[in-house]
Amino acid sequence: MSEPSRSQAHVHREPSDAATGPVGTRAPGVRRTAAGVSELVQAALPLIAEWLPTQRWYAGKGRPIAALTPVVGTPLQVGDPALLHLLLRVEHGGATAGPGDVYQLLLGIRSEQPASVGPMAVLGRLTGGTYDGATLYDAVHDPELTGRLLEHLATGDRFGSLSFRRTPGPGLPGNLPGRACTAEQSNSSVIYDTEFILKLFRRISPGTNPDLELSLALSRAGSTRIPRVAAWFECRLERSEPATLGLLQRYLADAEDGWELALDQVARLKGDPSPGNFAIEAHRLGRATAEVHRVLARSMPTARLDRARIAELAGAMADRLDSAVTAVPGLMRYRPALRAAFQQLTEAHLDGLPVQRIHGDLHLGQAMRTPQGWVLLDFEGEPAKPLAERRLPQPALRDVAAMLRSFDYAAAHLLAGAPGQDPELALLASAWAARNRAAYCAGYTAGGGVDPAGTPELMRALEIDKAVYEVVYEARHRPSWLPIPLAAINRLADTV
Ligand SMILES: Nc1ncnc2c1ncn2[C@@H]1O[C@H](COP(=O)(O)OP(=O)(O)O)[C@@H](O)[C@H]1O
Ligand SMILES: O=P(O)(O)O[C@H]1O[C@H](CO)[C@@H](O[C@H]2O[C@H](CO)[C@@H](O)[C@H](O)[C@H]2O)[C@H](O)[C@H]1O
């Protein structure tokens, strides 16, 4: 890896710290001075450069880092342990060079490594200067420091360009310790007791994150299909719109994740071809999706696409396919059929197609079954897409197509490790997927959503578009799962 550049950090001072702040008294904590923060950031950069590419949420995997440039460094706690909030720009060289990506890091600095911080969360030992010998680590894993973050959210503090904001309603307890969430995820979350969950967005773009934007819109419209938003924090980067950094929501302690429920059913298929009846749940989930879509259509902008805009929609799908073919050449053989499906979308008589804000990355893992019914999570959209694109109104059926893919995933994932070895289970699993896909669509229509069967060209194009995204996603993150979306592409291409 090339040596990253070490630009000067833009650091913030809390206005009152010189007089009242708990200024660090024990080495090696951050000193709440511009010089103290800069020194720490410079010492941390080489460790960050090594650690970042090992993190699941890091989007630049496989591309060498050309430069690491601190954007804003804000000490949120001084002393030992210390807590440093850092926004850092990562630039890549060569053909992929561009403005780079900004990441949010929450760094803990302690003389003694806490037991809750495992090896993957440790960046290393700082050397030289004030911090010599201190451990630098991902503070998401330190209950004391994440507790500090909750206090800031509870009091609605401001530190330089960081603002902590609360929604109206019951006050927040400021004293709950946080534990790192162990779920597979694109960001990092901290769970506070059984009360709240704080998502720290890792890749930061200027502007309101759709997860906050849509969750607030749904909450304000009185929807109970999302966990209530309790607080968030944001940062104003130069003159642009504030960028959302974190979102605190009620934790659904008594909920079961739709993906786990579905997998449990599929795993038991062999012994009992109709274990439980997930189709009832799939139907309810369809209704819940339609309900969320209805509220979003009422409370956020909508539009209708004319023929030219539908051709643009299909063109964007074809462009995404072409980039996917470059990333995963195994897709090349399907390209003609998939392009034909996109062409058929432009020829279908869909003039006036309604579009609206949608979830954008709906799957069974984003659906929680609570005693009060299904609740949807994570309205961030596909993490790989630029934020402006994720905020565009879309056909609501895009979410339906995405959920249909998820039923296919649940059915296929047990077979992915041993393709062709259990034809009986393969048949049962594919019948399970078909049953639940149909139940979900029926529930969606019964809940007031548009009938997916009414626009087969649109549904097929949307499902292909999602499966193409999944091929790239799996190739990058979970290569052993790649056969799942590839098999779907194979099936969908056969229908053109
Ligand atoms: N409010 C919540 N209550 C309970 N569990 C949650 C809640 N929000 C998220 N989770 C759990 O955390 C996981 C990751 O959350 P998600 O919002 O999808 O994060 P990411 O955008 O980082 O992928 C979810 O799949 C779910 O298991
Ligand atoms: O939940 P995230 O916002 O992190 O979404 C990303 O990761 C998902 C996997 O965790 C991925 O979803 C794909 O795998 C799921 C099973 O793990 C499956 O149910 C989905 O249908 C499939 O798309 C999602 O695409 C990605 O954006």
From TrEMBL:
Residues 1-29 are annotated as: Disordered. It holds the Pfam family Mak_N_cap. It catalyses: D-maltose + ATP = alpha-maltose 1-phosphate + ADP + H(+). Gene3D superfamilies: 3.90.1200.10. It comes from Kitasatospora saccharophila. Pathway: Glycan biosynthesis; glycogen biosynthesis. Its EC number is 2.7.1.175. InterPro entries: Kinase-like_dom_sf, Mak_N_cap. This is Maltokinase. It comes from the Bacteria. Monomer. Keywords: ATP-binding, Carbohydrate metabolism, Glycogen biosynthesis, Glycogen metabolism, Kinase, Nucleotide-binding, Transferase. Belongs to the aminoglycoside phosphotransferase family. Residues 51-142 form the Maltokinase N-terminal cap domain.
